Recover the amino acids of this structure.
């Protein structure tokens, strides 16, 4: 009897909760718990819901709480739990990260931004992940959009955009201190102080530093990939007397990055194992100003300057970049939400050469100017939303590129939405693809060729942009307030992919020995189709337990594909007691045939205790399922020697006051 | 004018107002006041709102609710009227930084919990600030301020809050 009664009571209360959330009556809201209230969407009368999860694109957001409770100590670690991304750690300080295919250490189809500042390098159109870091405690969220974001963010946002957004200084007031240590010589420390600037301004300053020891090697020798880094920065947000908003931020870092690699030589044994400690330093400054010209009418100007210097026996790079952008958002006729803008970027480099690496010219500058526009139109009372946009970019390598984008979102009802999009995106060539001449490996003399053969990659200024035509569609379903699903599917047609094809071998005596040179010439001869899907499910069975699971599938005919076909991720966030949390992350990555990397499953667990609200003690175990594991085999032609992930423990203390 | 960006104005969205009222009601449920604030064990919990800062229609349903043994009484106050008789006070804006400091000082004296949806409220020393983040509401608690006012917040509330450091004096 009792059980029936309880079941009926549960059923009735579920129905009541469903009913109360649909209706907009005050007394119903007062019956909800705080957790339920915090999930309700509110909008002002004239505006449509702008939450990023409501856009017609494959979007995934990592919140500050997600990042902290995963125990992520770097941005790549946090990105591991994003569906549709392939995140593979090669050495302690190098990563191969891509979205929807084409992964490699030099993956080049992903745009990464930190507070609006682009952090990919034109040297290889990719990201140096060891340089991208900030105080993760002060990161508000990381938004990941898989698929082309070209219309708003421009060329190179071919397969996705990663937007790291830090908290407003108003939300980081007071002092924050953190220290931690872990296995493998890992030591970390960070401090931040936030205060006021007059009546309507806020600021924060922070510093952080860490040391990581080397990981186990894969070629019989221990890894040489220990590294250490120190970073400091500040942010200020001010509202001036006329109501305009000013924002300034800046930072500087310095790292020493260890690396072990195999370098080519022209004499026996034709390769040598080298270990280096490269020095990298960089700094940046970003400022923006915005004004509300009228209600729902906003003008923004933003500019940033960044500078990085990197020194390594193989290659050196000094690069300065200046970027300015103006953006205007406004609403017309109550139904058109328009964003348009213009911008420009100038980047200048000085590249150092070595025995194996040469750039011609060794100093160059690139620039681009762009204009973009996007109109989001509402129909049927906001039920259907259509977005049409394009970006026009003129760059110093390939001239004019046009990237149009058409998307639509249809809210079938309060709990179901479907979206679809078609877009064109391009990836402009990199400095390396244009101007690089690199000696890859040297093949010893064989019976066929009596001389050693040096394989050289040779760039070509005639290289054009890679092109993508992307078809995407998705579905969002929220059957209960505590359960939701998000499905994104895509079919991508790539053309003019940059390829290396063997040219005519010739004999050379450069470098003092006679050898055959086999040039691999750069051209746009590649084509590929990539298709797949990502499915995310969220479930909150109890107020204190949140579960998330996702599955990514990818299939391609691209011969050099270094992406797994299947990936699974599962996370649980459990508030054991009001002061203790227990979180787990688990993932599975299927094998990569191209570079012989095995499939693996991995588990991480974090336990945290807040004896008082200001103090948190935590202990984190990572890579618990294997004592050592190889995640991504290095690119032999580039001489990369991978190191292995190890089972590890990390403990930390954080204090806020 | 203490404002972060656009001038604060009362919500023209009835849903937002109703949800904010529900938050305030929940805050009151998880707050303990010093015993001197309740001369009789079933005395009312007085929820005060500054005139025009929350739609009266949104507040009316609360008058039929209770917090434990205490019925709820809702009072609408004019600008600068004293908050002494209130247990919990909600206002969208304070005329100036000085006006906010005065209100917080009085709140300390009379053990009144101050709640606002003004941007930066908690950072400025306010007790609980309602923050709108991409169309959802969350809240920040300035623990230091709350402790100095003599009011205690349940750990159930603090668990969901974003704890904010003290304002630089």
């Amino acid at each position: 009897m009792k059980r029936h009664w309880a079941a009926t009571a549960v059923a009735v209360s579920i129905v009541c909760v469903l009913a109360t959330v649909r209706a907009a009556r005050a007394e119903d809201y007062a019956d909800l718990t705080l957790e339920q209230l915090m999930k309700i969407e509110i909008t002002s009368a004239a505006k449509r819901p702008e939450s990023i999860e409501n856009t017609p694109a494959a979007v995934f957001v990592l919140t500050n709480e997600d990042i902290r409770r995963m125990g992520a100590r770097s941005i790549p670690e946090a990105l591991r739990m994003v569906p549709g991304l392939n995140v593979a750690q090669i050495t302690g300080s190098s990563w191969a990260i891509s979205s929807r295919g084409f992964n490699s250490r030099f993956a080049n189809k992903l745009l990464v931004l930190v507070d609006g500042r682009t952090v990919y390098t034109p040297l290889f159109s990719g990201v140096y992940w060891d340089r991208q870091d900030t105080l993760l405690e002060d990161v508000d969220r990381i938004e990941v959009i898989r698929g082309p974001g070209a219309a708003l963010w421009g060329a190179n946002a071919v397969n996705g955009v990663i937007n790291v957004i830090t908290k407003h200084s108003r939300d980081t007031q007071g002092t924050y201190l953190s220290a931690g240590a872990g296995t493998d010589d890992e030591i970390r420390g960070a401090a931040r102080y936030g205060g006021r600037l007059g009546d309507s301004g806020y600021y924060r300053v922070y510093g952080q530093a860490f040391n990581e020891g080397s990981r186990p090697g894969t070629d019989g020798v221990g890894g040489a990939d220990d590294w250490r880094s120190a970073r400091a920065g500040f942010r200020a947000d001010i509202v001036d007397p006329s109501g305009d908003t000013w924002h300034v931020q800046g930072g500087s870092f310095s790292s020493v990055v260890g690396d072990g690699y195999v370098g080519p030589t022209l004499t026996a044994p034709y390769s040598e194992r080298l270990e280096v400690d490269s020095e990298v330093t960089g700094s940046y400054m970003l400022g923006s100003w915005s004004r509300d010209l009228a209600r729902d009418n906003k003008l923004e100007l933003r500019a940033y300057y960044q500078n990085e210097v990197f020194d390594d026996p193989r290659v050196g790079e000094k690069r300065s970049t200046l970027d300015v952008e103006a953006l205007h958002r406004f609403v017309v006729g109550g139904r058109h939400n328009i964003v348009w803008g213009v911008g420009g970027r100038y980047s200048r480099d000085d590249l150092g050469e070595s025995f194996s690496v040469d750039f011609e010219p060794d100093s160059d500058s690139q620039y681009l100017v762009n204009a973009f526009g996007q109109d989001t139109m509402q129909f049927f009372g906001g039920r259907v939303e259509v977005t049409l946009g394009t970006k026009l970019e003129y760059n110093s390598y390939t001239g004019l590129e046009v990237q149009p984008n058409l998307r639509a979102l249809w809210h079938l009802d309060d709990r179901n939405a479907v979206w679809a999009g078609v877009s064109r995106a391009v990836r402009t060539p990199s400095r390396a693809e244009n101007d690089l001449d690199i000696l890859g490996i040297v093949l010893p003399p064989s019976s066929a060729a009596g001389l050693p053969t040096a394989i050289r990659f040779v760039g070509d200024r005639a290289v054009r942009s890679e092109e993508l035509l992307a078809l995407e569609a998705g579905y969002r379903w929220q059957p209960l307030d505590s359960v939701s699903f998000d499905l994104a599917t895509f079919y991508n047609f790539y053309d003019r992919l940059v390829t290396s094809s063997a040219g005519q071998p010739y004999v050379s005596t450069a470098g003092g020995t006679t050898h055959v040179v086999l040039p691999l010439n750069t051209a746009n001869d590649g084509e590929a189709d990539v298709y797949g899907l990502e499915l995310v499910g969220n479930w909150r069975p109890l107020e204190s337990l949140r579960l998330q699971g996702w599955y990514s599938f990818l299939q391609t005919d691209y011969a050099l594909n270094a992406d797994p076909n299947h990936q699974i991720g599962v996370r649980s966030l459990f508030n054991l007691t009001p002061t203790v949390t227990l979180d787990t992350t688990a993932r599975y990555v299927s094998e990569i045939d191209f570079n012989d990397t095995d499939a693996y499953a991995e588990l991480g667990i974090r336990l945290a205790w807040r004896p008082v609200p200001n103090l948190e003690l935590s202990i984190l175990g990572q890579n618990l399922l294997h004592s050592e594991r190889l995640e991504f085999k290095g690119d032999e032609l580039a001489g990369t020697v991978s190191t292995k992930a190890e089972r590890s423990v990390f403990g930390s203390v954080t204090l806020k006051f | 004018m203490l404002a972060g960006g656009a001038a604060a104005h009362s919500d023209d969205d009835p849903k937002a107002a109703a949800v904010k009222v529900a938050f305030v009601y929940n805050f009151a449920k998880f707050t303990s006041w010093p015993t001197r604030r309740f001369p009789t064990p079933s005395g009312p919990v007085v929820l005060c709102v500054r005139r025009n800062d929350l739609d009266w229609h949104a507040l009316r349903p609360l008058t039929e609710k209770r917090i434990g043994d205490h019925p709820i009484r809702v009072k609408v106050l004019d600008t600068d009227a004293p908050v002494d008789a209130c247990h919990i006070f909600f206002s969208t804006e304070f005329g100036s930084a000085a006006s906010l400091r005065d209100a917080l000082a009085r709140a300390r004296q009379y053990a009144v919990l101050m709640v606002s949806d003004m941007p930066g409220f908690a950072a400025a020393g306010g007790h609980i600030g309602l923050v709108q983040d991409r169309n959802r509401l969350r809240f920040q608690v300035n623990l230091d301020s709350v402790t100095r006012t003599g009011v205690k917040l349940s750990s159930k509330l603090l668990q969901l809050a974003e704890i904010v450091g003290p304002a630089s004096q």
Q: What stands out?
A: The domain at 14-163 of chain B is CATH 3.40.50 (Rossmann fold). The helical segments of chain B are 14-29, 56-59, 97-110, 143-149, 155-160. Chain B has one domain: 14-163.
